[in-house]
Design goal:
Elements: E1 14-23, E2 26-36, E3 41-45, H1 52-59, E4 67-72, E5 75-77, H2 84-93, E6 94-97, H3 109-119, H4 125-138, H5 154-166, E7 172-176, H6 184-199, E8 204-207, H7 211-217, E9 220-225, E10 228-233, H8 235-240, H9 245-254
Parallel strand pairs: 3-8, 3-9, 6-7, 7-8
Antiparallel strand pairs: 1-2, 1-4, 4-5, 9-10
Helix pairs in contact: 3-4, 3-5, 4-5, 5-6
The structure holds adenosine-5'-diphosphate (ADP) and magnesium ion (MG).
Amino acid sequence: MNDETSKSGGEPIVRLDKVNKYFGSLHVLKDIDLEVTPGEVVVIIGASGSGKSTLIRCINGLEEFQQGALEVDGNPLLPHGKATKTLQKIRTEVGMVFQQFNLFPHLSVLDNVTLAPMKVRGLSREDAIKIAERLLDRVGIGDQAQKYPSQLSGGQQQRVALARALAMEPRLMLFDEPTSALDPEMIGEVLDAMRELANEGMTMLVVTHEMGFAREVADRVIFIHKGEIAEEGPPETIFDSPQAEPTRQFLSRVL
Ligand code: ADP
Ligand code: MG
């Protein structure tokens, strides 16, 4: 749980105002209003197909939306994918970890982590290596730097993906089911790394089915049902006394 006093608060890092997204005639996101303030950890839960990934992907411009307003750290993303300059800026400020680790298979762990800081942030190889070594240590795999992704377990690969995202010094981290592709015995090590990040004050938006993690780490839980925010609140409220019927039904299936 984040320490309330450590929060910087202030202007929201993420602001969505009546965002609507369609895939053809399929209305996938419906009037989504969402604000995430600096230091906040927001967990998004909901059934498969409810629009969680699409929401996350709209926030870093991987998907266009059709109506509404979306801002990341004061940079507007416009409907229909307009404003490409802003998009570049947003992508350097937002880190993302996916279900599939998406590491570069032909690069060592170290090179996976140093690539973007050198290419995008213009760091020297020496500086990028310093940062990468520190981050790999921090996620507990400092001794794996010279290996290739295929030589690592799933849990280790996902921690490389986390270190790689952090190497860009993001203002916001997005996670889309980061543990769903992992064997059960590896889920804990990835959740631990995420918990630590949350404790350090990172602003995080996390889609997960790990309800224990949500209860423990989230400042706020959002339940999405058929493309709408059906209910949101502190984890105790959502898990112990959900108000909306769809939330109750969902939780009775997963808890
Ligand atoms: P979740 O992550 O909650 O499981 P998604 O955001 O992936 O849900 O999907 C929401 C809905 O949008 C689903 O009905 C899904 O089939 C549909 N969808 C997702 N991506 C696409 C796409 N690229 N083209 C068409 N439909 C899509
Ligand atoms: Mg999804």
